[in-house]
Amino acid sequence: MEWFQRLTSIYDIIRPVVDIAILAFLLYKAYDLLVKTQAVQLVKGAGFLALFYGIAYLFKLTTLQWLLTILAPGLFIAIAIVFQPELRKIFIRLGQGELFRPDSKPRIGQLEAVITAAEILSQERRGALVVFPRRINIKSITETGTRINGEISSSLIVAIFEFDGPLHDGAMIIQNGRITAAGCFLPLSEQQDIRKSFGTRHRASLGMSEQSDAVILVVSEETGAISLAVDGKLYYDLSPIEVQRKLKELLDRGVRSGDSEPKAGSVEVAMDSTLDDGKDVFVER
């Protein structure tokens, strides 16, 4: 039993290090999850209320304490309702166990091939939908299309989105540096205030970005505009340089769409806010 006692003593020595390392890893993953789902705003709101309550307790502001105590349960319920999409994303990620997997992203040369194909399709007014999954598993979406498992090349992408082709109307999935599938069906957005001028592709790109953390590239068949959808927001009519820069940033670091603004001259379509007449808000950059 001497070896067991030695092992126990060694474990007692390293146990605090292991404990702190695991806790730090879980805190990092929790922060990463909150940032990617935009639920960090929920945490900020809760922290703001806690700060006010702490001030009221410290300075013995009994009336403010009483008011916050009464309002707190209702406020937390209201926050849960407002941030319901973000909370849904959190539980989807936890359920699918994708939080601890590394991001899979195409290389720079492969991204350039995708952008080149998007430019060609834009000039020829051919619509396209390209999905770049990040951490959330979209196997159910991939299975709705045709397996390709081909190398990423601009000629193959253009060929797949040819007019009247069997895979033209569906979405292409690019994952692990390869074209994994094409002709896939994406869920349509549940947002009610989407511009009527946006067709099925834009609605599908928004729907996919609402239900996953994927980044979706859209080429409009009507206008030729190249756009990106991520986290339920649509960055409309970006230049090829902007698309490449933003795609690389999103796929490299998995940042939220709001962390990086398009360059001057581009337009962000804020689908979650409307003007008095019900039209979408366009924020000129």
Q: Could you describe the 3D structure shown?
A:
With 285 residues, the chain is of the alpha+beta class. It has two domains: 2-96, no CATH class; 108-284, YojJ-like (1, CATH 3.40.1700. It is 50% helix and 18% strand. It is built from nine helices and nine strands. The chain has helices at residues 2-37, 40-58, 62-82, 84-96, 108-123, 139-142, 154-160, 200-211, 240-253; strands at residues 128-132, 146-151, 171-175, 178-184, 215-219, 226-230, 233-236, 267-274, 280-284. It has a nine-stranded mixed sheet with strand order 2-4-3-1-5-6-7-8-9, with helices on both faces. Helix 5 crosses helix 7 and helix 5 packs antiparallel against helix 9 (240-253). 28% of the residues are buried. The model is unreliable at 255-285 (pLDDT under 50).
The CATH C-level class name of the largest domain: Alpha Beta
Extract low-pLDDT stretches. 255-285
Mean pLDDT: 78
Outline, from the CA principal axes?
Answer: flat
Tell me the major beta sheet.
9 strands, mixed
CATH-derived topology of the largest domain: YojJ-like (1
**Strand elements, count:** 9
Rg for CA atoms: 23 Å
Strand content: 15-25%
- Label the structural class: alpha+beta
Number of structurally distinct domains: 2
* Number of discrete helical segments: 9
CATH architecture of the largest domain: 3-Layer(aba) Sandwich
Q: How are the strands of the biggest sheet laid out side by side?
A: 2-4-3-1-5-6-7-8-9
Q: Helical percent range? A: 40-55%
CATH superfamily of the largest domain: DNA integrity scanning protein, DisA, N-terminal domain
- SSE topology string: HHHHHEHEHEEHEEEHEE
Instruction: State the end-to-end CA separation.
Output: 71 Å
